[in-house]
Structure formats: structure tokens, C-alpha cells
Amino acid sequence: MASDCIVGAVEDHWTVGRVAELAGVSVRTLHHYDEIGLVRPSARTAAGYRAYSAADVERLREVLAYRRLGFGLREVAELVDDPATDAVAHLRRLRGLLLERRDRADAMVTAIERELEARARGQRVTPEEQLKMLGTRLYDAIGGAYPATRRTEPRIAAQIWDALGDAQTVLNVGAGTGSYEPADRHVTAVEPSAVMRRQRPAGSAPCVAAAAESLPFEDRSFDVAMAVSTVHHWGDPIAGLREMRRVARRVVVLTFDTDEPGWQDRFWLTRDYLPEFAAVLAEFPSLAGMADAIGARAEPVPVPWDCADGLFEAYWRRPGAYVEDHVRRAMSVWTRVGPKAEQRAVRSLSEDLESGRWAERNSDLAGLDAADLGLRLLIA
């Protein structure tokens, strides 16, 4: 029987059996890939068996990864034979595809939970609603809510653009549908979600499918890298911030401060109706830790009472907005806390608005034009 790793004339090559075992595929599959020219082992043993080099194994890894993401053999061949794409670029592309799949899975879980809640209450779930759960329309509906209420707030934008300084080349990481992208600079956008990329308006900055943690750019490719209300969506925020620091001379990030004791009590919505919000950010890095990662200073970003951008804190003086389903759908917090917490919070808020209890409890807000609710701009 041939050894796992062959030495001599084909040193550091692996037998077809060992490669099949490590990859979790059949020897027959590997033989087929060889026959169609998809992955051809570069050597043979003295007995004539196929032998795979490290480069062969790397190519096989790419082939199998794309296959498990649902690509056909012809599509896979075009991807792995692309002369402009190296191993690192393939890894970054695969990561982006997997993150998008994760987002779709999260959205499906949310839809299932909503249907279970509806059935528990004896509500009828239509065939159309049942089928939406299994199709791409589900994530389109959730992601599609963003353009309706999420847009550039001029006063917040002014603070962000002022922080950009004289930068001419800007990388917008986690760009979404393109809010806050300055029109007077050369902008390149990065967004892993295809749903979000499709919703970018005509004429907006070119958008690359990639994740913050693996930016496909050379060191110091941009004057500044910016990220607006997106860091909390990243799998590894610190790694993403360091990547921004790597590819740009300066970094500007709009994020959230959880360092201050009792931070969740700054906003009446999380204090009185949605305590689960604290758990959503339980593993979120501290503001100090994020600032240290990129050598940044922090500036408060007040939220205007009539904020045009429907972010989570936007309606602090307009509480009735939070009982509107289309408003909540454009806020990722509600998906994260789940339907039970959302329904309880909305029901309780609705009752307090009707009874006047909310107005009595929050009477001090009536005369404020803006509020500090924890938004911070990191500038490095």
C-alpha cells in the first residue's frame, strides 16, 4: 500500500487516497476531476498512482469550497482558472459568499420564529408566506426595507465628511446601499451582501463583494477608509478595523459606545422596553478597545430629533415610529432580539403611548433638538 506522503522523486506529495480522506470526498470524485482537467495531480508514484502537490491540494480546496457553495463544475472551472485571482483572493471571495449565506440563514431563522409565533396564536399562515421562507424573497424583503427609511442624515454626514478631511480616495467598508458616501471624492465601496449591492442607486460608487476582515486591497491603497453603522455586523470587528487601518492612511468609523456604566439606560427604548438590546451587544468590543486597535480618538455624534436616517436611535423624540413594522424592519436590532421580545416591546410601548405614560416619563425630551445616545465617531 502506498504511503500517505511520498518522498523521493515526488517529495511532499500526497496519495489520492489520503487526499480523498482529508477532503471528505471519494477517490472516484478525484479521478473524475482529473479526467475533466479540473484538478490534475502533478506527479505519479513509482507504481503509477496519482500524487498531489501542495499546490494541487490548494486548487482542490478551492474547487470543493465552490462546489459546496452550489457552483456547477463549469462555473468552478472558470473561477479557479481566473488568472487575475490568487489563493488569497479566492479565500476572500469565499468568505464573502459564506457571510452572505449566513445572513440568509439568519433571516430564515427569523421567518421561522415569526411563523411559529403566528401559529401558536392560531393565526393562519398563507401559502405565499410559507413559500417566501424558502426563497430568496425572504432576504430581499428584509434587506429591501433599508432604502425606505435608511438614508443620509445631513447633520451626521457633515460630521463624518469633516473627519475625512482632504482625503480624495475613500474606501467605504460595509457600505450597504451607499448612504454617507461623499459625492465629491473618489469612493470605492465594499459590501458582502448581494441584496444590499443590488439596491445601490445607479451612478453610485463601484462596489466590491468582500468582508471587512479580508479587504482585497494593497496596503495604504486609499487616503481614508470609512465605515458607518456597520461594525456591529462584522464577525470580527477588531480584525476588520485593523484591515481598514492597513489599506488606508486614515480611518473614520461611526459606531456605538458600550463602555459607560449603565449605557443601556441612555435610551428610553432599551431602558424601558427592550432590555434584550444589552445581550445583542454583549460580545461587541469596547469603544476603548476599538479605538486602541486603530489609534483613534472618539467624538460624540448627537442624533437630531428629526433624524432622516432611520437608524435604531433615530426616533427618540418620535416614539410612535417604533410601533410601525416598516420602520422596525430596517433596524437589525429587532431581528437580533427575536420576535418575542419585539412583540412584547411594541405592545408595551403602544399601551404607554395610548395611556400617556410614555409622555409623562419622558417629558424632558420635548425641548431637545438632539440627544447623545451613544453614537461615536472614531477618527484615526
Layout of helices and strands:
Layout: E1 5-6, E2 13-15, H1 16-23, H2 27-35, E3 43-44, E4 50-52, H3 54-68, H4 73-80, H5 87-120, H6 127-132, H7 137-143, H8 146-149, H9 154-164, E5 169-173, E6 186-190, H10 194-198, E7 207-208, E8 222-228, H11 237-247, E9 248-256, H12 268-273, H13 277-280, H14 287-294, E10 297-300, E11 303-304, H15 325-328, H16 332-337, H17 339-355, H18 357-361, E12 370-371, E13 375-379
The 3D shape can be described as: globular
Helical/strand content category:
alpha/beta
By oligomeric state, this entry counts as: single chain
Strand content: 5-15%
DSSP summary: helix tally: 18
Q: What are the low-pLDDT stretches, counting only 5+ consecutive residues below 50?
A: 6-10, 136-141
Distance between the termini: 60 Å
Largest sheet: 7 strands, mixed
Strand order, sheet with most strands = 7-6-5-8-9-13-10
Helix amount: 40-55%
**Total count of strands:** 13
Supply the CATH architecture of the largest domain. Answer: 3-Layer(aba) Sandwich
- Rg of Cα set: 25 Å
Relevant CATH superfamily of the largest domain: Vaccinia Virus protein VP39
How many domains? The number is 3
> Would you give the CATH topology of the largest domain?
Rossmann fold
pLDDT average, as an integer? Answer: 86
CATH structural class of the largest domain? Alpha Beta
